[in-house]
């Protein structure tokens, strides 16, 4: 239910709550499975359904981090914030940073730099099967490490965190009939291309 200002994907507004509960009681809903992003930070794990972010702190240096995808060096970022989002999270912080909107039917992680200064300046999309490592450069600031907007701690230059996708991590109740029909259309197999 939307009780704030940012619930643009939430289907139920406060005045609609009674009707929504009646629909749930009668079974008039669908269930969607959603993936999550898992942050491994030393021995700790945190799970977010939207995103993980390394956000620079005002008055400090920018985030400078190298990216490794499935053990392969994949470039460097220097930016104000680095966002790693799920497809559901692609509609939030990642989208505001210029990242693509990604269908929730796609198992992928979206990496979006906010206000890039140098290095990779465009968003990247990687497969859910590819684990990611982010290592802060020695000349990096000490960004706030966030999971779904909650700060877990401040990172230090030289530290590494691991990020991976967890499939089928949560269930979402859908009441909107257009969401059901859209999911059904997306779930149909693609037609093979016809040669010219």
Mean pLDDT: 85
Main sheet attributes: strand count, strand direction, barrel closure: 7 strands, antiparallel
How big is the Rg? 19 Å
Counting DSSP E segments of at least 2 residues, the number of strands comes to 13
End-to-end Cα distance: 50 Å
What does this structure look like?
The chain has helices spanning 17-25, 93-96, 177-187; strands at 30-41, 44-48, 51-55, 63-69, 72-79, 81-85, 108-114, 118-119, 124-127, 132-136, 144-147, 150-154, 160-174. It has 196 residues and is mainly beta. The radius of gyration is 19 Å and the shape is elongated.
Describe what is shown at a glance.
The chain is mainly β.
Can you lay out the helices and strands and say which pair or pack?
Layout (H helix, E strand, L loop, with lengths): L16 H9 L4 E12 L2 E5 L2 E5 L7 E7 L2 E8 L1 E5 L7 H4 L11 E7 L3 E2 L4 E4 L4 E5 L7 E4 L2 E5 L5 E15 L2 H11 L9
Antiparallel strand pairs: 1-2, 1-13, 3-6, 3-11, 4-5, 4-10, 5-8, 6-7, 7-9, 10-13, 11-12
For this entry, give a set of tags.
3 helices, single chain, disordered C terminus, 196 residues, mainly beta
């Amino acid at each position: 239910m939307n009780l704030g200002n940012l619930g643009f994907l939430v289907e139920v507004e406060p005045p609609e709550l009674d009707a929504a509960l009646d629909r749930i009681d009668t079974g008039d809903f669908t269930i969607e499975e959603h993936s999550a992003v898992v942050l491994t930070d030393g021995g700790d794990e945190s799970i977010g359904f939207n995103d993980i972010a390394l956000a620079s702190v005002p008055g400090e240096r920018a985030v400078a981090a190298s990216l490794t995808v499935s053990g392969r060096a994949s470039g460097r970022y220097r930016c104000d914030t680095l966002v790693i989002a799920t497809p559901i999270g692609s509609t939030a912080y990642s989208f505001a940073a210029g990242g693509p909107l990604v269908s929730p039917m796609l198992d992928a992680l979206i990496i979006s730099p906010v206000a890039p200064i140098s290095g990779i300046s465009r968003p990247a999309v990687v497969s859910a099967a590819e684990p990611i490592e982010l290592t802060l450069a020695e000349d990096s600031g000490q960004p706030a490490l966030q999971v779904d907007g909650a700060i877990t701690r401040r990172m230090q230059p030289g530290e590494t965190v691991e990020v991976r996708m967890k499939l089928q991590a949560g269930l979402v109740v859908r009441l909107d009939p257009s969401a059901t029909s859209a999911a059904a259309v997306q779930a149909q197999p693609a037609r093979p291309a016809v040669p010219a």
